[in-house]
Amino acid sequence: MEWSFDSPNGVVTVRQEGNRAVCQAIRTADSSGLYKAWLQGTGERVLLGTLIPEGGALRLRRVIEVTALERQGAWPPMGAEVALAYSFAAEASPPPDWCWTDCPQRLLDDPMLSGCLRRIKRALLKRDMEGFFLAFPWSCHEPFPIPPLFCLAWQEFLPGGQYVVFRFSRQGCPELLHNISGEGENRNAT
Known about the structure:
mainly beta, 5-stranded antiparallel β-sheet, 6-stranded antiparallel β-sheet
């Protein structure tokens, strides 16, 4: 049995050979950073590994016992992706009044909302007297960072690209933008 999954950053194929899964990933070679391949089943995502340069492309080949993938909830495969795990580009300075924050989920009080951010390692943070804003790089080709708060978000162009921004109280509870005086008057809703 064989599966093939396309993602914006590459292709992952999985072929069952007896009690083993032969997992391969490929993407065009570039020097933008390190790419990792992930396999998704009905449970958690499983890291297959880091793609390495080979023959003019970035490639990964890994053989894993099917029982190991079953224990991790990744068998049978339901999806896979190749994702940029580390960028070689020089990190842009945050915009004025903003700073980078690692593990933004720690700022949110609600377990469901903080769970949405488990996969996001960094965000822009801006604090004021009433609370704070979180901004996440955003593209319509990527998953939305906090799906339950889709209607409370707005788009903003900050240095480095397009971001989706959310407003929170000091306790980490989501707030409606129209309740904040002077903010969001010229914002574009998502």
